[in-house]
UniProtKB/TrEMBL annotation:
Lineage of the organism: Bacteria, Pseudomonadati, Pseudomonadota, Betaproteobacteria, Burkholderiales
The name this protein goes by in its record: Amidohydrolase
Keywords on record: Signal
Database matches in Pfam families: PD40 (PF07676)
InterPro entries named in the record: 6-blade_b-propeller_TolB-like, WD40
Signal peptide start and end residues: 1-19
Region Disordered, residue ranges: 578-600
Family from the record: Belongs to the TolB family.
Highest taxon of source: Bacteria
SUPFAM superfamilies found in the cross-reference section: DPP6 N-terminal domain-like
Organism of origin: Pseudoduganella albidiflava
Length: 600
């Protein structure tokens, strides 16, 4: 698979990206959507779940805490500096110190039983591997070094082994545009020797935890049909079970049955098995019956004596969010908005969709440029309004209107529609006979390019319609696999994404169909391309770095295509702006042009 080349990615990117000579900070602003939480907060409680209280009340994401064996310390991941870094502190919040930091993704940490070493997940060599930090010498060791993704390390009680999940043998089952990565359970010694798989390939196994005597490993397991339900944006209920494997014999025992999601198992004293249960009545449960703690519980961790418990949950969930994120490149500021943001020419308001994903039934809303003043511009009871784009004049909004993914019986139909900027005056431009969407205006506002799919010869691929006459034409050479068209502000090129050459890559073509050019050639899907206001840059979302965690634990991130990148109009000078485990996409630029050009 192309994913096998991820290990070579950092060197390739370094070679492809010329060094920037003092680019002006904040020259551009890119808005985008993220499937990540608005804010996650750490909680601490007694071992039975009683007395749960926030441990840190901060404005950034803190998550994946793990207690030391004696229960006096904990390690956790924090995004306070923009990327995911690992900290250690006492359970009362004192003596906080950075253990692992920098632009890399560092997460899922756990202290060794003797407290001298820290195992964690990091992509500092390009792909998520299991690493170990010696807390005394600060030496870092890559334990697993593999092009696939390795996740959720767990120390054996004697500190001689690590159990972890990995998608290195994943069959990458394809479900529409999503790619779910199956994971299996592996063992490895802290020095990297003795690697072996103890789980099944082709299933979704994860979050291994050792028995207290070190003789077995327990984990969750599910099949593709159920995991597809779990990661669906509509949150369809899936089923996973808890499984134990005897290390010596390899005997596999299914410990649970019945409906519902069961994840993050942990053996407690008295041979009690605690786990996270999903669904409306979910929380932290015990095998055999009983709920320790109701509500959202993620990544629970107990002290060895079972007296203390830490976990995290989302705090202050709201949609659409409006958050300024730290960018990996100071020339490009980042603003997290909702899905498919589009700025008015004045820069004072943003038009966007109201839901977290295009697969859901969407309305068109607008918010002020600071995130306040939300109001609904368009709603249709039966049809979804997807991917609004404000016209160059700021007087109209183009969008797709219909049933794109909503599970309609028979063929899904959608049209290109217009409304006035205040939401009035609905006009349907196309004839109602096809599946059309994702419009983008020409710079003078006289034409719109859009995508057609499943409509027959001459109506699939990229099409252009004259707004006044409604005369429609097909761009020669474009096919049903071509998607997300975006018209350059200079008028000379249209960018789009296509899997015509394998996975999804970014291309440009002239409006007359000539000059087809492929801009990206890195592993993974590249899509959601968007031009900067001056036509010099293209923002896009890329899945080149793969997944950073188990699919079941991140149900709103069903595909690895999710980091925000920018590149010049010819595909050169590629720059990465985000690095996290969430799926991000639909980047759009604010209208303001840079005061100074970004110099190569």
């Amino acid at each position: 698979m192309k994913r096998l080349f991820i290990a070579y990615l950092p060197l390739a990117l370094i070679a492809a990206v010329p060094a920037a000579e003092n680019p002006p900070a904040g020259a551009y602003t890119v808005g985008f959507a993220s499937f990540g939480p608005t804010r996650t907060e750490l909680f601490i409680a007694r071992g039975d779940g009683a007395g749960a209280r926030p441990l840190l009340s901060e404005s950034w994401n803190n998550y994946n805490a793990a207690l030391s064996r004696d229960g006096k310390w904990l390690t956790f991941t924090s995004e306070r500096e923009g990327s995911a870094d690992i900290y250690r502190m006492r359970i009362d919040g004192r003596d906080r110190q950075l253990l692992v930091g920098g632009p890399a993704f560092d997460d899922q940490s756990v202290l060794s039983p003797d407290g001298r070493r820290l195992a964690f997940v990091s992509d500092r060599e390009g792909q998520p591997d299991i690493w170990i930090l010696n807390l005394k010498t600060r030496a870092l060791t890559n334990v697993t070094r593999h092009p696939g993704g390795d996740f959720r390390p767990s120390w054996s009680p004697d500190g001689q082994w690590l159990a972890f999940s990995s998608d290195r043998d994943s069959t990458d089952p394809r479900l529409s545009f999503s790619i779910l990565h199956s994971t299996a359970i592996y063992l490895v010694r802290p020095d990297g020797s003795g690697l072996r798989r103890i789980g099944k390939t082709g299933e979704f196994e994860g979050s291994p935890s050792w028995s207290r005597d070190g003789k077995s490993v327990v984990f969750y397991a599910g099949d593709i049909a159920n995991v597809n339900k779990i990661v669906h944006p509509k949150r369809l209920r899936g089923v996973t079970q808890l499984v134990s494997i005897d290390i010596a014999s390899g005997t596999r025992t299914v410990l649970t049955d019945g409906p519902g999601e069961k994840t993050s198992p942990h053996w407690l004293k008295g041979k009690k098995l605690a786990f996270v249960s999903g669904g409306p009545d979910g929380g932290l449960s015990l095998m055999g019956g009983g709920t320790v703690l109701r509500g959202e519980v993620s990544s629970p961790s107990w002290s060895a004596d079972g007296g203390r418990l830490v976990f995290h949950r989302e705090a202050d969930p709201h949609w659409p969010p409006f958050q300024r994120w730290k960018s990996l490149d100071p020339a490009f500021k980042l603003v997290r908005t909702g899905v498919f943001p589009s700025w008015l020419p004045s820069g004072e308001r943003i038009v966007l969709n109201d839901k977290t994903a295009g697969i859901l039934h969407n309305d068109i809303i607008s918010i002020a440029a600071d995130g306040s003043g939300q109001r609904t511009l368009f709603h249709d009871e039966k049809r979804s309004a997807l991917a609004p784009e404000v016209s160059p004049s700021g007087k109209q909004i183009a969008f797709g209107l219909g049933n794109f993914f909503q599970g309609t019986q028979g063929r899904a139909l959608a049209d290109i529609a217009l409304i006035n900027i205040d939401g009035s005056g609905l006009t349907i431009l196309t004839d109602g006979s096809g599946n059309y969407g994702l419009p983008s205006w020409s710079p003078d506002g006289s034409q719109i390019v859009f995508r057609g799919a499943g409509n027959g010869e001459g109506k699939d691929g990229l099409l252009i319609i004259d707004v006044a006459s409604r005369v429609q034409r097909h761009i020669p050479g474009t096919v049903i696999k071509d998607n997300f068209p975006s018209w350059s502000p200079k008028g000379d090129l249209i960018s789009f994404t296509s899997n015509r050459d394998g996975d999804y890559e970014i291309y440009t073509v002239r409006p007359d169909g000539t000059g087809l050019r492929r801009l990206t050639d890195i592993p993974g899907n590249d899509a959601h391309n968007s031009w900067s206001p001056d036509g010099e840059w293209i923002a896009f979302a890329s899945g080149t770095h793969g997944f950073r965690d188990e699919a079941v634990l991140h149900p709103y991130n069903p595909q690895p295509y999710g980091e925000i990148y920018v590149m010049r109009a010819d595909g050169s000078d590629r720059r990465r702006l985000t690095n996290n485990q969430y799926e991000e996409g639909t980047p759009k630029w604010s209208i303001a042009r840079p005061e100074k050009p970004v110099r190569p």
